[in-house]
Amino acid sequence: MTQRYAHYTALKFARPRPRILEVILSKPGKLNALDADGHRELAEVWRDIDRDPETSVAVLRGDGGVFSAGGDLGMIEVMARDWATRTRVWKEASDLVYNVINCTKPIVAAIEGPCVGAGLAAAMVADITVAGRRARIIDGHTRLGVAAGDHSAIVWPLLCGMAKAKYYLLLCEMVTGEEAERIGLVSMAADDGKVVETALAAAEKLRDMPPAAVRWTKHALNNWLRMAGPTFDASLAMEFMGFSGPEVQEGMAALKEKRRPKFDPKDPF
Q1: CATH number for the domain including 19?
Q2: Which of 25, 141, 146, 214 could form an SS bridge with 62, CB 3.0 to 4.6 Å?
Q3: At residue 240, does pLDDT exceed 80?
Q4: Which residues neighbour 5 within 8 Å (Cβ) at sequence distance 6 or greater?
Q5: How many domains does the chain contain in total?
């Protein structure tokens, strides 16, 4: 791998085909959950890919047949109690979405197994998203006790419509890859075990297309997401405001104790 990516420690990289770069979420034993380093690197890597003369297309996937279980609980605990960490991660969460949108190179996401949180954010704003039929997509925010910020407000209503977006985001319901394809949340579903292969085939087609035409088309289409930028910014601010409140404390406790959370039903405002 080129020196361009030598400073990354939480992400792995591979070149399975000429001019195609795999960005691999890798946290063995933790379902590729993103710790502080992983979250920061997933936000930054798209700028390096944009400037990489050896890469025409990027493929985002998880290691070991699993995409990502979302943010590491340890990182979330620090965010909930530390203002400096919370503001830094807020900026990273914003950069993660906008850097994927603004990267001139096309990005293909390959979702296998669970796909939650920051990893899900990158996958959902990628240009082509391939999901395994039994992949498990879940936004995860409201069950944790924070607003569904990250990426969902900017793209879910455009992908699957407002009614479906509200149903899955408010209730924090899981969507299988097969159902995600049916409602338009992902580009296509593939048989489990063939997800990465299918994503690489799409990446090869993109690589062999006229690059300027593809990149300008991506830029034009992503103006729909840029127009939703104020909605995304507001949702992200509401999410991170929640990290300083009592609901996230119960959400984290429930995750640790592997039980359903019991939130105070009283109207807070």
Answers
A1: 3.90.226.10
A2: 25
A3: yes
A4: 11, 13, 45, 48
A5: 1
